[in-house]
Design brief:
600 residues, Alpha-Beta Plaits, TIM Barrel, 3 domains, GGDEF_dom, CBS_dom_sf, CBS-domain, alpha/beta
Length: 600
């Protein structure tokens, strides 16, 4: 029930002062009097901040020399009482869950030795759960393994009994132990936990990023979900989103507590949504759009069956091999046909399992992966994926396939569409993508800020300095907004003329907008003659023909905070943003007005 690392021998791990009869007596008293405390840490859906499950952890008595779980479990193994401690931990954890009355899914740490030695243990667990009104579907056995073990067959057999009853299975600390990858292949767990070593500072370390991407790929192919452990900062979230890791655990969301959290803090949840990538593609094109139906074969199928399918259909480019709804490989057309074309190859291979000829490492992607991310993955991977295509799944379950040709065609269409609706002066998205993006955010019930940005006294400047300088000033405004935006979660669009829109999910949106005002002022001063800069403006004939003083061009911003359900469409929201902008422009000089009134 602990996350004690037992890489070295238990005796080596114990401090010198934790030895002898006194230690044995202390451990015996803890076990006899059940002097253990359970605490619970949330496991969170990274997409929306909902609590997916809790992990139960055990603490020793606060005043004991065995207060720390690492010392407690090391002492138990040294004294030959590890199984006894493990079973007591499970009972204490379940008792705590029942006492708090909270429903949900609970991850329980169990060492492999407890599983291996547990004759009749699954039935006993069922009785313990039933006595507390819980179901085996509520429990995920989190297997801790950090030493080499040769009992894979026995362990797999014992765990199958638990899984047949409805228990889930998770593999803990992937990448830390000696045999975790072997266990993953042998046990096919429902969840794998990416060790915190690979999460800490992942946004600054390409090696950690590559490891996370590889784990995500294997998980997609095996149907497992990845839980990233040890998340402490928001910056660590972005690469996890990028590689499709959907669950997280760490101090960022909550520390282990005696009472399980009902929800993570709203501020944390809101800020998490800002780190989910916000692409410039309003429709959020995903791999699911490329889905095509392709005939599949089970692992028991013969190579002759694959040959006949390819031979009968010239458009069949690949055949996925699917076992129990999960893809395990890919038969490639040219490989099968070329092999059968060789002398005597048909006689050699036709009656053998298709698993001998399949590619056991196909590209497998989830249907929710963005086309931008998929394109980057295909380009970075082996070029055979462009020819043979990729398998598309839904949380590990086979759906169909996609082709490199369809991916390139769709990406080209998106680029053409983006260019068609982009403002020719700034290259920023124009009205169509702006409106589509607003409608998508509203449909997603997202919290965001719309900022309407407009230049004050731009027409007099354009008249005096010429439209070439006016165009350059508009380009300055666009580049200033882009530089201030968080590219991961903010959107900048150019309505036309000197009007811009920002759609912001960054938590620090207001300081960013304030920096925009200052940065534009600083940049715009270089456009004016020294005398105009010193005077703070210039005199020109006004619309009535009378001379009038015009201040230097500056920017005004009207911002509206949008909560779920407040606006039905981009029409309503655009009108509210325009009203906020008009109020901002009434203030002399640069100004930011934030609409605080709640719409009726």
């Amino acid at each position: 029930m602990s996350k004690a690392s037992l890489v070295s021998s238990p005796a080596d791990r114990l401090p010198d002062w934790l030895a002898g009869d006194a230690l044995s007596a202390e451990l015996g008293a803890i076990l006899q009097h059940r002097r253990l405390t359970a605490v619970y840490q949330p496991i969170v859906e990274l997409a929306d901040g909902r609590i997916f499950a809790h992990e139960g952890l055990i603490r020793g008595p606060a005043t004991s020399v065995l207060a720390q779980p690492t010392d407690l479990f090391a002492a138990a193994e040294t004294g030959g009482r590890l199984l006894e401690l493990d079973r007591l931990c499970l009972d204490v954890m379940l008792a705590g869950v029942a006492a708090c009355g909270r429903t949900g899914k609970w991850f329980v740490n169990v060492c492999p030795d407890s599983i291996l030695a547990g004759r009749g243990r699954p039935e006993a667990c069922l009785r313990a759960l039933a006595a507390r009104g819980m179901r085996p579907e509520d429990i995920v056995i989190e297997l801790t393994e950090s030493r080499p073990s040769g009992h894979y067959d026995h362990l797999r057999s014992q765990l199958r009994r638990y899984r047949d009853m409805g228990f889930g299975l998770a593999l803990d600390d992937l990448g830390e132990g000696f045999s975790s990858l072997r266990l993953w292949a042998e046990l096919q767990p429902d969840f794998v936990k990416l060790d915190k070593f690979f999460v800490r500072g992942i946004h600054q370390d390409p090696v950690r990023q590559r490891f996370a991407a590889a784990v995500a790929d294997i998980a997609a192919a095996t149907g497992a979900r990845v839980i990233a452990e040890g998340i402490e900062t928001f910056d660590e979230l972005e690469p996890l989103y990028r590689y499709g890791i959907g669950l997280g655990q760490g101090y960022l969301f909550g520390r282990p507590e005696a009472v399980p959290l009902g929800a993570i803090e709203r501020e944390t949840r809101d800020r998490m949504t800002t780190y989910a990538p916000m692409t410039a593609s309003p429709a959020r094109a995903t791999a699911g759009e490329l889905l095509i139906e392709v005939p599949t074969l089970p692992p028991a199928a013969l190579n002759e069956q694959a040959y006949q399918l390819f031979n009968a259909d010239s458009d069949c480019f690949a055949i996925p091999v699917v076992d129990g709804g999960q893809p395990v490989g890919l038969l490639r057309r040219h490989h099968v046909l070329e092999t059968f074309a060789r002398p005597f190859s048909r006689e050699l291979y036709s009656k053998k399992s298709c698993m001998q000829m399949m590619d056991a490492d196909p590209l497998v992607v989830d249907r929710r992966m963005s086309l931008e991310a998929l394109s980057a993955r295909v380009v970075a991977a082996d070029r055979r994926y462009l020819v043979d295509g990729f398998i598309i799944t839904d949380e590990g379950r086979y759906l169909g396939m996609g082709t490199g040709f369809d991916l390139m065609r769709r990406m080209t269409e998106m680029q053409i569409s983006a260019a068609r609706y982009a403002n020719p002066l700034t290259g920023l998205p124009g009205n169509v993508p702006i409106n589509e993006t607003i409608d998508q955010l509203l449909a997603d019930n997202a919290r965001f800020v719309i900022a309407y940005c407009d230049l004050d006294h731009f027409k007099p400047f354009n008249d005096l300095y010429g439209y070439h300088k006016g165009d350059e000033l508009i380009q300055l405004a666009g580049s200033t907004l882009v530089e201030a935006a968080d590219g991961r979660c903010d959107f900048v669009g150019h309505i036309g003329g000197d009007d811009f829109i920002m759609l912001m999910r960054s938590v620090d949106w207001q300081p960013r907008l304030e920096r925009v005002l200052v940065a534009f002022d600083d940049g715009a001063r270089a456009f004016f003659r020294p005398g105009h800069r010193e005077a703070g403006g210039y005199v020109l004939p006004g619309r009535t023909g009378d001379a009038a003083f015009f201040p230097l061009t500056c920017m005004s911003i009207g911002a509206v905070k949008v909560e779920p359900g407040q606006y039905a469409s981009h029409h309503e929201l655009s009108a509210a943003a325009a009203d906020a902008k008009h109020i901002a422009k009434k203030t002399p000089g640069r100004s930011l007005f934030v609409e605080r009134r709640v719409p009726a």
